[in-house]
Design a protein that fits this description.
This is Gliding motility-associated C-terminal domain-containing protein. The structure is a single chain. The protein has no helices and 25 strands. The mean pLDDT is about 90. The strands form eight sheets. A five-stranded mixed beta sheet has the order 21-25-24-22-23, with no helix packed on it. A four-stranded mixed beta sheet has the order 9-14-13-11, with no helix packed on it. Strands 15-20-19-17 form a four-stranded mixed beta sheet, with no helix packed on it. By secondary structure, it is an all-beta fold.
Length: about 325
């Protein structure tokens, strides 16, 4: 505003408004009915140039994509604007697996949509459901075109009762044990495993004492299972065998020996040698005649030895 004062005391004021150049592009966000009209609104602009080469303030497009326009003003400055036009489409987002006792949210909110119609009767952009099934939605856009989509929701089963088994005692430090949770079936969805040693296989071979745990997890729940494994000295030399062919106690079986090769020598009651092996594998006795036998079990490399009598009973 300008104020002019004269000698007589009177004043005159004049106002001139300055406005910063602006540009905005109006039009639908969706290409409906095969075409869409875009308008570049730039008060005071002296020229326009679209990315298509058009030079008018308006532009009719028939393909989806991003369109830009440059507006030129009298003082030589320029502004650029852009708008993205997409084809009518619907995409439903949300979980497809319904966990027991829970609900899920399905959403179809999209730019440019003016109305929603779900197969449940809902007219909102999102719905909440606690039932499995196939859900459909029809979306209406400005211009009257529509697009539809559907999504299947499957009910997941709860994990069954799981266990790694009872705590276990192993006799030999060279023994190993495979821990494996029971199969859970396909109805629970994908299953992952996380053992206490960090491994993720569905089984774990253990060869040392300790408490072993595994987390069995699905998309819906996690169970933690455990089993304790201990070792003890189960050293045992039998004093009787029954080589009658019934598969039970037929041979001279020694359990719990320290690691290494053990030599076995067997004599009958009159001192006659009847068996010798440098590396005994629990195989003598199946054809032994009834009677009393003297044995010598030794590990020469360590100087260890066990001796005694064993009876072969009929």
């Amino acid at each position: 505003m300008l104020t002019v004062r004269y000698g007589t005391g009177c004043t005159v004021q004049a106002t001139h408004r300055l406005r910063a150049p602006s540009l905005r592009v109006t039009g639908p966000a969706v290409l409906c009915q095969g075409s869409a009209g875009l308008t570049a609104v730039a008060p005071g602009a002296t020229g326009f140039r679209w990315s298509t080469g058009a030079t008018s303030p308006t532009l009719t497009v028939r393909q989806p994509g991003t369109y830009t326009v440059v507006a030129t003003f009298a003082n030589g400055c320029t502004l650029m604007g852009a708008v993205t036009i997409s084809e009518p489409a619907v995409r439903i987002t949300g979980d497809t697996l319904l966990c027991p006792g829970r609900s899920i949210v399905l959403t179809a909110a999209l730019p440019g949509a003016t109305a929603y119609q779900w197969s449940t009767g809902a007219t909102t952009p999102a719905i909440t459901t606690s039932q499995p099934g196939v859900y459909q939605v029809a979306i209406t856009y400005g211009g009257g075109c529509t697009a539809t989509a559907q999504q299947a929701v499957r009910a997941a089963q709860a994990l069954p009762l799981l266990t790694l088994g009872a705590d276990t005692i192993l006799c030999d430090q060279d023994d190993s044990l495979v821990l494996r949770p029971p199969a859970v079936g396909s109805g629970v969805g994908p299953v992952t495993y996380r053992w206490s040693d960090g491994s993720s296989a569905p089984w774990l071979r253990v060869s040392s004492a300790g408490l072993y745990t595994v987390q069995v997890a699905t998309a819906c729940e996690t169970r933690t299972l455990s089993r304790r494994v201990t070792y003890q000295n189960c050293f045992f030399i039998p004093n009787i065998i029954t080589p009658n062919g019934d598969g039970q106690n037929d041979v001279f079986t020694v359990r719990g020996l320290p690691p290494g090769a053990w030599a076995l020598t067997v004599y009958n009651r009159w001192g006659r040698l009847v068996y010798h092996a440098e590396n005994y594998r629990n195989e003598w006795g199946a054809s032994a005649a009834p009677g009393l036998y003297y044995y010598l079990l030794q590990q020469p490399s360590h100087g260890s030895a066990y001796k005694g009598w064993v009876e072969a009973a009929p």
